[in-house]
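Example 3.2
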Amino acid sequence: MGIFDSIKESAKKAIDVAKENYQRSQEIKSWKEAVVVTLTFPQIKQLCDEYGSNPKPYTVDLITGDKEKRPLDRDAYEDFIVSEVPSKFILKFVQEHRIDAPPYPDFKNSQEIRKRMQEPAPISVSSDDTNKELETNESTSKSASKIDIESNNFNLVLNYINAEFRDNIKSFEVSSEDVFENILLASLRAKFPNINIKDVRNQHNMGDMTIDDRYVLELKYANNEGTLNKGLKEVRDYYKLLHYKGVAVIILDIGILGVSKINGYVEDYKEDGAKVIILNAKAKPTSKKDEYVVFKKKR
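Structure, written as tokens:
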């Protein structure tokens, strides 16, 4: 290995460390987002109080420096926690208050990558093909990245919901569609920290959550026929008006509607181009306790 090979090897190690650091920051951010959805608003405020800081009642334009008022609602507190509160403080908070939150990211590979970074690259005879190898590696890396970006995360999410999440949700008693979505959202973000999964419930007629901004999940808590009937128009609108590339309807059967009635709507959804998954869970009477739910990792 020549001097240029040694430089190339060192550069590759440095890139590995940079990638690992970026991956770590993204996983921590996703973990924070998954945790805050499991907390009640009072718990969120308590976390900020114990941290000793709270969100400001305004936002600042980074270019002009102008301040714009904003309500100190749940969104403001969630944004503040995700962007400002250290992950270890959040972890300590949920542990001390015995809140069953998504598991903290596992960074077992971090030490191994840093260890490789510290190892000197061996130097021997020079290579005439160093530049060609660098160009080939760069081209291969770009191609691999493009394939990764264009991979269908939507199907990965659906496969997870239809298998592992199906088993997990059976152990829950679910009182509403919002509770159902909180459970699913927390588990998806914990399972897929690098997939862009957004909660769009507050955006009018946009669906319940989106995957990479191109695919939409519409959740149905099957406690009455009206909610399933409403889904028919929603599926059509998602394709025709919002131009989503894929739509999936996730139905939670809580044993109130008959199987045959639910299956009738399933066929209608499929005719309109939607993918459909039916899950089962127990119904739970609505109470203040149900303002938040927790996702328990399957053991």
